[in-house]
Design goal:
alpha+beta, 5-stranded mixed beta sheet, 6 helices, 5 strands
């Protein structure tokens, strides 16, 4: 499942001072520390998290086309924009306005930052991938699987699990 608004935090040393950055003026996103967040001399984690913050805000605002637009090209090939929009316009309560808390930010390489997040009782994973000079959001496999059989099947599954 995709996610709503996020609590994004920047660990000391990743290039953004407390009170600065993309979350400082965004009322949908609270700030807090993420203990144990690894920050190496690797990718620009603050820039990567700008993309995550944008993704989560777009979802919380119900801007499905905008959120899909931040996805990696590979994810876009697996989930057509029209399917993503149809499912989320039909079942917006599953994500719209629902806050998530970022649990862990893990730089894996210069081009990949993995995220662990919590949305209520659900813990999920996603990633941020640097393609060229642009960070893109990479939804987890479970999101891609949800849409694999098309929009109508995804809507039916959400209805049967009472998330629509």
């Amino acid at each position: 499942m995709l996610i709503g608004a996020a609590v994004l935090a920047f660990a000391t040393g990743c290039g953004t001072a407390p009170g600065e950055g993309p979350t400082a003026t965004n009322p949908m996103v609270a700030q807090s520390a993420v203990p144990g967040t690894p920050v190496s001399n690797g990718p620009n984690v603050a820039e990567a998290l700008d993309t995550a913050n944008s993704q989560f805000k777009l979802l919380a605002d119900g801007d499905w086309a905008g959120a899909w637009g931040l996805w990696t090209d590979a994810a876009k090939k697996e989930v057509p924009q029209k399917d993503f929009e149809k499912v989320n316009k039909t079942c917006p309560a599953a994500q719209k306005g629902v806050k998530i808390d970022l649990q862990e930010v893990k730089p894996v390489s210069m081009e990949l930052v993995e995220l662990t997040w919590r949305q209520g009782d659900k813990v999920g994973h996603s990633a941020l991938r640097l393609t060229g000079k642009k960070w893109q959001y990479e939804p987890a496999g479970e999101t891609l699987v949800e849409y694999a059989s098309g929009a109508d099947a995804a809507i039916a599954k959400r209805k049967s699990s009472s998330t629509c």
